[in-house]
Amino acid sequence: MNKKDIIICRCEDINLEQIHDLLDQGYTTIEDIKRLLRIGMGPCQGKTCGLLLQQEIARYLKCKTEEVALPKIRPLVTGVKLKAIVEGTKDER
Amino acid sequence: MTNKELIIVGGGPAGLAAAYTAAQTGCHVLLIDRNPQMGGQLIKQTHKFFGSEKQFAKTRGLNIAKKLISDVETCSDRIEIICDATVVGLYADQVVNVLHNEKYYKYHFDALIIATGAGEKMLAFENNDLPGIYGAGAVQTLMNLYGVLPGQNIVMVGSGNIGLIVSYQLIQAGVHVKALLEAAPKIGGYKVHASKLRRLGVDILTQTTIQRAIGNGCVNQIETIELDDSWKPIKGTEKLIDVDAVCIAVGLSPLYQLLAMGGAELKYVPELGGMVPIVDGLHQTTINNIFVAGDVAGVEEASSAIVEGYLSGLAAAAKIGYQQPDYQKSIADYQQQLKNLRSGPFGAKIRAGLKKVEAKTNA
Fold first, then answer.
1. Are B2-119+252-355 and B122-248 in the same CATH fold?
2. Which of A8, A76, A80 faces B124 most closely, judged by CB atoms?
3. What is the pTM of this model?
4. Is pLDDT at A85 greater than 70 in this prediction?
C-alpha cells in the first residue's frame, strides 16, 4: 500500500503517510494534526476529511471512532474575503 | 443589521416544507440556500418515491421539488428567498451571517431552522484523487441535472439505496455498470432496487471493496479486494476491472457545523450518520428557538425530511407567537406521520438512533 497516494484531505492535499508520521510521533488528536498539517482548514473546512481522519486515528489507537474528539468548529463555514466582512459591517462602526 | 422573524437555512425538502407551514401561520420567513436553485437533492432525483400518498409517493423527486417550491411561491408575500447564499456563521446572540455574491450580510432572527442536510462520505484508497472518481451526488448532478455522462464504464462502490438507484439511472443513461461493490456481507438498500440491477446483469459483489485506482491522469482501472468477516482484506483476492469512472456512494453525514458553532448539544450517533443535535419532540435543539429539520437531524429519506420540515416550521412559528388554533392537532398528526414512516424493519436503525438524541420533552 502506497500511503502517499491515499489522499485524506483534498483541499490541503494531505495524504495518509503524513498523518501516520504524526501519529507515530505521538500527535493523536485531530486538533494537533490539524495545526501541524492544515488538514481540514481548506475551503470545505473538514467536511470531507473530518470523518476519515477520525477513523484513521481510531484505527491507530484501537478505539471506537466516536472516542476520537472532533475539532472545535468556529465561524466561518467557508472562506470569506476580509473585504466582504469590512464592507458588510461598515454601519456597525 | 436586519431583523428577521424566522430564518431557514437550506432550501431542500425540509427547508421548503418548513417555510410553507411557517408562512401559513402568518410568520415572515427568510429562506436561504447556497445553490442556484431551491429543491436540494430532490432536483436531481429522477426516480419515483416509495411511501404513502401524503409524502408524495409515486412522484419523481424532481417533481416533488417543483410541488414544494410552488407551495412556497403561493406565500411569496411572507417568504423571502435568497439563493446562491451561504450561511457562514451562527452566534449566540441570535445572529447569522450570510455570504451572497461576495457580499457579507448579518441578520438577527427570532427563530432559526437549520435544514442544511448532509454531506457525502469519502473513502481512503490509493489514488483516490484521480479524475474520474466521483461521489454519487456529483454523478447525479452531472447526469440528471446537466445531461452529462460521468463515463462509459463505471464501478459503483456502496449498495445503499443511493448506490442502487444511481446505478440504475446510469444504466438508463447508457453507461455500463461493471460491478457494484459492498464491503458488508449484505446489500444495504431495498431488495427491490438490487433485484432490478441483478436482472440487468450487474454483478453485486458483497464483502468486497476498492483497494486502489490505477491510471495516468485519469482512472483506467480499479483493483478490488475481498474482505473477511472481520472486514480485513484477504490477500490473493485482488481483481482488476477496466473503468473510466468510479462512483462512491458510501453514505452521508449530517452537516452539523452551524449547530456546533452555535453551541447546540450534539452527539455522535452512527445510526444517524454522525454528529446530530439533541432535540425535543418539536425538533428544537438545546438552544432556545433554534430548530432542525431533515438530514442534519439524522440521515433519513426525503419523505421524513419533508414531514420534519412541516413540523418544525409550525413549531418555530408558534414559538415566536404565531400559534394556530389547531396547532396541537397538526403537530400530533406530523409526529404520527413520522412514526409511520419509521415503522417496519427498515426504520429499526433510525428508531434506535433517534432514541439516543431525544431530549426530555413535554411535546
1. yes
2. A8
3. 0.95
4. yes
Q: What is the DSSP pairing of strand B29-32 with strand B2-9? A: parallel
Q: What Å distances lie between residue B71 and B35, B48, B79, B314, CA to CA? A: 19, 20, 11, 15
* Grid cell in block for residue B72: 412556497
Backbone region of residue A12 per phi and psi (left: phi > 0; alpha: psi in -120 to 50; beta: other values)? alpha
Using alpha carbons, select from B283, B275, B274, B280 the residue that is nearest to residue B307: B283
Q: Does the beta-carbon distance from A80 to B121 stay under 8 Å?
A: no
Q: Which residues of B touch A87 (CB under 8 A)?
A: 103-104
Q: Are B247 and B155 in contact (CB under 8 A)?
A: yes
Contact B289, B112 (CB under 8 A): yes
CATH architecture for residues B2-119+252-355: 3-Layer(bba) Sandwich (3.50)
User: For B216-243, what is each residue's pLDDT tens digit?
Assistant: 999 999 999 999 999 999 999 999 999 9
**Mean pLDDT, to the nearest integer, of A51-76?**
94
Q: Which residues pair with B120 in a beta bridge?
A: B252
CA distance B309 to B264: 19
> Which residues of chain A neighbour B87 with C-beta distances below 8 Å?
77
Q: In what order do the strands lie in the sheet with B204-206?
A: B133-135, B245-248, B153-157, B176-182, B204-206
Asked if B83 and B12 touch (Cβ cutoff 8 Å), the reply is: no
Residue A40 in grid coordinates = 481540514
Is residue B290 within 8 A of residue B262, CB to CB? The reply is: yes
Q: What is the pLDDT of residue B112?
A: 98
C-alpha cell at A24: 507515530
- The domain spans of chain B are 2-119+252-355, 122-248
**A41 touches B at CB < 8 Å:** no
With contact defined as beta carbons under 8 Å apart, do B244 and B129 qualify? no
Cell of B291: 430548530
Closest CA to B315 of B258, B363, B266, B265: B363
Per CATH, the architecture of B122-248 is what?
3-Layer(bba) Sandwich (3.50)
What secondary structure, in 3-state letters, does B85-98 show? EEEEEEECCCEEEE
* Strand A7-9 relative to strand B95-100, pairing: unpaired
φ/ψ of residue B298, rounded to 5: 140, 130
A contacts of B90 (beta carbons < 8 Å)? 75
At B349, the amino acid letter reads: K
Q: Judge whether B222 is closer than 8 Å to chain A, CB to CB.
A: no
Rounded Cα gap, residues B121 and B253, in angstroms = 6
